[in-house]
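Now for one protein, fold included:
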Amino acid sequence: MKSIFLTLVISVGVSGCAVSTQRYYAVPDNTPLLKQFAERKVRIEPFKFAAEFDSVCRGFTRITPPINMTFEEYFQRALADELKTAGIYEENNPNVVLTGTIDKLEYSSGSALSNGNWGIGLNLVSSNGQSLYMFEMYSFDSVWEADSGCRRVADAFLPAVQSLITKILKAESFRKLLVQSEKMGKK
């Protein structure tokens, strides 16, 4: 009986806990940025994850995306949600198709005892051959205590991704991603 109890305690201790990030929701200020592309219809294809990511926070707690989602799906859905909210997402008959690669995903749960940050690098490629790379270093307040510090890491992921997506949508080179290629035909 003691060995079963000890095995259970060790299993729970080794596996640690997980803290999920918040589900993405579109930023209201991004809709007007995208409305200028109302004549464009865009589809988002699956993103790739090329970054090395250590999801274990402070040696114990895993930072995870929402249930049944990978980090690459999170970024793909985030951009798709922004396009859907603005009415320019089109699954079946798009003018352009965007794909993405997350090449950097890292966080610090605290530096100088109080500040944490997320570093995210995303490369978008359009079916028209154009590409755009954007990096976001998003800072947030952290705390010394492990559980609360890791919870703050997870809570800061949503605004970090929102900030990255907003930077992408405001970039002059984003417009070039949406120019229709000749092989997709004119609409």
